[in-house]
Amino acid sequence: xxxxxxxxxxxxxxxxxxxxxxxxxxxxxxxxxxxxxxxxxxxxxxxxxxxxxxxxxxxxxxxxxxxxxxxxxxxxxxxxxxxxxxxxxxxxxxxxxxxxxxxxxxxxxxxxxxxxxxxxxxxxxxxxxxxxxxxxxxxxxxxxxxxxxxxxxxxxxxxxxxxxxxxxxxxxxxxxxxxxxxxxxxxxxxxxxxxxxxxxxxxxxxxxxxxxxxxxxxxxxxxxxxxxxxxxxxxxxxxxxxxxx
Length: 245
What we know:
mainly beta; 50% strand; globular
């Protein structure tokens, strides 16, 4: 009789696991509930590896959540004076502007967004925000990233111009932090992004190193956070188009 009870209990537990398994959207919703700063100022070292060469750059990233949406300003301090300003939009693609070293300001639109960002392995589109409602989600088999158990969620854009055919998000089970993203083009992996050296700063989980690696072995870009300040006073005017000049 005890054997029968144990078998019955195992069946009940297995059934319960199936009933309460989270959908892909539910996993992403939990990830979105991570504590986020209202504002931030971050100093970043960017190392771009191509073959045997390394190209190093430095920039300051400022971001702020405003009533009209999120604002991000990237200002390169070495070796050039390039700036990139992004205004998020809930009703369409984000607005982006690029200030060249010459001082000329151009708006980044359409196909320009698929271009490489300052010769790195990231694009201007990669710098944009993502509205989770614009994607369909599907859970895949669980994965591990750097030894951490993760949910794997496939995200496919519902409509619009697509640089990537889909994303695979690896969400750490312990805290629902996205620790890796695989970018696909035509159902073939194109590149991967990993959040590494994750540290909690003022209650906010912060990757101190981000690595973007091309799947074909052509190179990688590393972003190393040297310093970050959260929830500081930044005037809205710091994110106006005039700030690019």
